[in-house]
Amino acid sequence: MTATAGEAIVAALSDNVDRLLAEEPEVRADAPDSVHQMRVATRRLRSVLRSYRGLFERTPARAMGEELKWLAGVLGVARDAEVRAERFETLLTKHGQQSDHSAADVELVTARLVTAENNRYAAAHADVLLALDSERYHELRDELTQWRTEPPLRSARGKVPAADFFGVVLERDRERVQGLIQQETTVTPAERVELLHDIRKSAKRLRYSCEAAKTVIGADASDLGSRAKRLQTVLGDHRDAVESQHAIYGISADAGAAGEDTALYRILAGAEDTAARQALSRYPDAAAVLSGE
Asked: What is the pTM of this model?
């Protein structure tokens, strides 16, 4: 018997809800990478709700999306601090000892970059725990548990053959990414950074819609999802380097105002500029592969 779109989306939701809820005890224990994994699970669910929105009743789906956005935002503050701390530490390990700066200078830079971000992570993780203990999260968790098997579907659309509905969704999401890629050659350099970020987010949405469609469409969905992931990864590397460089410049300004030597900050910012350029050099091939060129 041919699976319906409703049956297929319930299966995809069940898997994604399980991923999210499985991370809660890990986050509470502050297990390595747990905040990241719970945030990804939250974003994946929200993305599926957007891509397959035609299957859901509009009001409850919009409300669920807003609650998932809230949770992702809370987790994101901690995750962003965690990423910056790790990235700054890697930069200092690679470049701090290659410079002519004293151990005292390196220590000052480490305190402003790594230690400060670790402190931000600790504070943000405490906020995550407060959120997980809140009534708002408990209500979200209860609702997700219900959605795991009985989401508010539009009955007529849910009866459409899954392959037909999911195929249309993947094509629409793919066309969205390709439309943004085509715009990329027409914008100014100042606009390009944000457009590349939009391409990355759109590629990620396509990746997640492909993941939800694997059991329905099979190898074609897996292949398209892999191509979308490649583009997302390339542009994610670029975005991380750009944001790190901007953060270093800001912290360098603070250090300079305090009378500290800022030479090492310039070295680190230069390294991130190189990393951003290297990531961007991989973008044309990744964009072409997604388009099947």
From this structure: 0.92
